[in-house]
Write a structure and sequence with these properties.
This protein folds into two domains: 4-138 and 318-346, Alpha-Beta Complex (Quinone Oxidoreductase, Chain A, domain 1); 156-291, Rossmann fold, CATH 3.40.50. It is 27% helix and 28% strand. It has ten helices and 19 strands. The two termini are 22 Å apart. Its cofactor is Zn(2+). It comes from Faecalibacterium prausnitzii.
């Protein structure tokens, strides 16, 4: 497909603009996707607000966005499993395939991963992208491309549940009711966890957690979260905590509310990258800590969970912004976190099934 496409670029901290670039030509193992929805992730907001995450520093003009869904409009010569018109969710990280971690199946740990919107690699706040066909997953007819865009954060939630060994009969707590907290809660419920409680300080987010299936919520501005969980579990504590808030206080609470022998999964990054934690208590309880870096081998399962009705992915979305309104979309996502749980950018009209 010849021609140019509109691209939204970050021109500096807090500054968005537009440019045009050539529509990419897919290689033989790639497909060209017309993007329809792209989610706004916490990392996009962090880059936009501060210009960096750790050692990943934005050099403008930079394209944000790594949660895409869209429709295939061109197919590389070697691609057999996708055709023009297929609606797809795109897994945003291309790995080397031959390092120790890729060969062990832990491809999310590949040191040479090329991941959308991770400097210096541009993201996909744009009209088209050419992407490896094996990383484009066909959506069933009853799953929209907006839901396809949200498979990416959902994959994080499922990976967190897997890392924690989630199963039926457990009581689990999710710290934080942002997007990743909510998808973690839904992944735990889909995995059969009997009771899932969500802790946050923003009531609107907790209301959303209840709407999406949490068994209970705790506003830790108003209640002692640790004591509440102990009361709900006859003093034992919970079997599993998934910590998505990335703060020292919530991580300490996770250690305190976990029962002996429990699992704690750390998902949220702290601002400084460091924490002081009560490790003596963790040792006394023989707690197991697991961490999460993105996900692996999750997309097909996550898509199936949405298609079968086990996960209400549309329910997370609180705001849809037009592509022409990208500055406002980024600004509002940062300034109105109490009300905007998950925002998506509508790049184009969805292709009808």
């Amino acid at each position: 497909m010849k021609g140019t496409m509109k691209v939204a670029v970050m021109n500096g901290i807090g500054k968005m603009g537009y440019t045009t670039r050539p529509i990419p030509t897919p290689k033989e193992d790639e497909v060209l996707v017309k993007l329809e929805y792209v989610g706004i992730c916490g990392s996009d907001m962090h880059y936009y607000e501060t210009g960096a995450i750790g050692n990943y520093v934005v050099k403008p003009p930079f394209v944000l966005g790594h949660e895409p869904g869209g429709t295939v409009v061109e197919v590389g010569s070697a691609v057999k499993h996708l055709k023009v018109g297929d609606r797809v969710a795109l897994e945003p990280g291309k790995t080397c395939g031959h390092c120790k971690f890729c060969r062990e199946g832990k491809y999310n740990l590949c040191p040479d991963v090329v991941f959308f919107a991770t400097p210096p690699v541009d993201g996909v706040f744009q009209e088209y992208v050419a992407h490896e066909a094996n990383l484009c997953f066909k959506l069933p007819d009853n799953v929209s491309t907006m839901e396809g865009a949200l498979i990416e954060p959902l994959a994080v939630g499922f990976h967190a549940a897997n890392q924690g060994g989630a199963h039926a009969g457990q009581t689990a707590v999710v710290m934080g009711a942002g997007c990743i907290g909510l998808v973690s809660m839904m992944a735990l419920k889909a995995a059969g966890v009997s009771r899932v409680y969500v802790v946050d300080i923003m009531q609107k987010r907790l209301d959303k957690a209840l709407e999406l299936g949490a068994d209970g919520v705790i506003n830790s501005r108003e209640k002692d979260a640790v004591q509440t969980i102990l009361d709900l579990t006859d003093g034992l504590g919970c079997d599993l905590v998934i910590e998505t808030a990335g703060t020292e206080i919530t991580t300490r609470q996770a250690i305190e509310m976990a029962q002996k022998g429990a699992n704690i999964v750390l998902v949220g990054y702290s601002k400084s990258g460091e924490m002081t934690l009560p490790m003596s208590l963790a040792l006394d309880k023989e707690l197991t800590f697991k961490t999460v870096f993105r996900y692996r081998h999750i997309y097909p399962m996550a898509i199936d969970a949405v298609a079968s009705g086990k996960i209400n992915l549309k329910g997370i979305v609180t705001n849809i912004f037009d592509f022409d309104d990208i500055q406002n979309a980024m600004d509002k996502s940062i300034s109105d976190k109490a009300n905007i749980v998950k925002a998506v950018v509508k790049i184009a009209e969805e292709t009808k099934v």
